[in-house]
Amino acid sequence: MQFRDIIGQEELKRRLVASVATGRVSHAQLFTGAAGAGTLPLAVAYAQYLNCRHRADGDSCGVCPDCRQIAALAHPDLHLVFPVNKQGKKSGEVITSDAFLPLFRTVFARSNGYFSPQEWYDALDLGKTLRGAISAREADEIIRKLSFKSFEAEYKVMLVWLPETMNEEAANKILKILEEPWEKTVFLLVSEAPDRLLQTILSRTQEVAVPRISTEALAAVAARHGQSDPERLHNLARLAGGDYLTLQRLLAGEDDELTRDCFGLFCSLMRLSYNDKHLELVSWAEEVAHLSREQQRAFLRHAARLLRESYMLHAGLADISYLWGAEADFCGKFAPFIGNENVEFLLDEIERAMRQITQNGNPTIVFTHFALNVSKQIRRK
Fold first, then answer.
1. Segments of the chain assigned E as strands
2. Alpha-carbon distance 174 to 172, whole Å?
3. How far apart are CA 139 and CA 339, in angstroms?
4. In this structure, how many other beta carbons lie within 10 angstroms of the beta carbon of residue 170?
5. Taking the domains of the chain in order of start, what are their residue ranges?
6. Which pLDDT score, from 0 to 100, does residue 59 have?
7. DSSP assignment, residue 281?
8. How far apart are CA 168 and CA 170, in angstroms?
9. What pLDDT is stored for residue 327 in this prediction?
10. CATH number of 256-379
11. pLDDT for position 160
12. Are 145 and 97 in contact (CB under 8 A)?
């Protein structure tokens, strides 16, 4: 995995390269951002660059033994930790990431590193509700592995994907080694929800904030996939919201049905809110609660987009709105109910619901609370 394989993020790549060139490599770095922004592949590309024997032109060579092994996630000095689940294992059997490393390599290679936590849980066959975790036993393994000298590379790298899935015991166990690791040891933590990490971990790491991918970079990707109409390219890239995984679904047409479903739920929520239908709002929340976590998050993302677009219409900025068809018709009528006095509150409610769902909150409680709060704001208009 080379930097050239990462979509966009040019400024961040330059900063990472500069940190190595100046010898200012932090021993504990926290890559934060959405999976679709490329946090995981970027961390792997950085690990490869750190240990490349022939760095040149701001990238690893891609052909030396260290590069080839790290690209395959098979280097003896690259240690991987990620959430797993003992579903299907014998009672009392302790499992760690190593047991699932071949599967993780397969998923990583198939997607070039761009995959969501839900896709990983699907690969583990955990269904819609079960999730993986990083256990205290895994933390013991981290300490044990890093106590050895490096085999071949300049740096020993411990890459922890989704450290927010560590329980408190596991997190506390790695605090000392995170603060005072052995020489030439680098921790790369890759998190989608850094707010769920212990403050003691946050204080021991240097954040590497991975922004959403630029519209221009995503448009270039769409063009390589056969899209040629400039307007459609720009619309697809903007609808993707800086997320390559969303762009993939849009290009494949997989988001069409999901988008329709999310739009239908949004329309229902706003109509019920306007008409003050409390009992129906509770039924609406129960319907959303039965969706998968990924579908629930998709709905919240769509709701946030439609609220922002409605606000722009209300502000007289229709010329920069990206709505058409049924969405344009509904939001055109709905826009008068979204203004300065409630848009910020509504978007905060969406963020709160997203955070609670990500933290495995009870979806019925989350969406009931969300729907009733939204209703109060819409009725106030």
1. 28-32, 78-81, 156-161, 185-191, 206-209
2. 6
3. 49
4. 20
5. 3-209, 214-253, 256-379
6. 95
7. H
8. 5
9. 83
10. 1.20.272
11. 96
12. no
The pLDDT, as a whole number, for residue 95 is 83
- Predicted confidence (pLDDT) at residue 68 exceeds the cutoff of 90: yes
Judged against a pLDDT cut of 80, whether residue 319 lies above it is answered with no
Phi, psi angles (nearest 5°) of residue 87: -55, 125
21: CB partners within 8 A, 6+ apart: none
Rounded-to-integer distance, Cα 10 and Cα 45, Å: 13
pLDDT tens per residue across span 336-356:
999 888 999 999 999 999 989
Distances (CA, A) of 355 to 192, 359, 367: 11, 6, 12
Res. 54 pLDDT band, cuts 50 70 90: very high
Q: Say how far apart CA 265 and CA 209 lie, in whole Å.
A: 32
Residue with tokens 């109060």: 376
Fold annotation for 3-209:
Rossmann fold (3.40.50)
Angle between helices 343-358 and 363-379 (to 10 degrees): 180
Please report the DSSP string for 127-178 in residue order.
TTT---BB-HHHHHHHHHHHTSPPSSSSSEEEEEE-GGGB-HHHHHHTHHHH
Residue with tokens 């990620």: 82
Reduce the DSSP state of residue 344 to 3 states and report it. Answer: helix
Task: Pick the closest to residue 73 from 36, 37, 111 (CA basis).
Answer: 111
How many of the other CB atoms lie within 10 Å of CB of 148?
A: 12
Q: Is the dihedral of CA 233, 238, 244, 245 positive or negative?
A: negative
The mean per-residue pLDDT over the stretch 233-240 comes to: 80
Average of per-residue pLDDT across 103-117: 94
pLDDT over threshold 90, residue 148: no
